[in-house]
Known about the structure:
8 strands
Amino acid sequence: MKYWINTISKDHVMRGVEGGFTQANYGAPYNLKRMGKGDYIVFYSPKTKYENGEPLQCFTAVGECIDEKPHQAEMSPDFNPWRRKIRFLECKEASIKNLINDLRFIKDKQKWGFPFRRGMFDITESDFKKIVVAMGVKI
Length: 139
């Protein structure tokens, strides 16, 4: 079992929650192929909206991967992003600011936002648990 963070604006996270899926890295399949059924994923939203959104800097959703492999969806004739099916859990938003000093994947606490630039990446179980506890989730 692995644990993941996916960096996505809150409006796009909420589309995924409503549809029971996640996309990553602008619809690319690479990181989604690394996920396995039963892996957990936390969503970090730097902004409220993809374009021109207000700063948010919160973990906004958490879920479990429930399919075996990525599949493509058609959003338009020229955009067919890869997705994974996710069972989302009840949670509340949690500010990153309260967790920066406790998360091991953030090496430089002064430049704490740097790891999120990767989009989707794996984290330790310990970091995952710290985040979901702050989100009010019991796994």
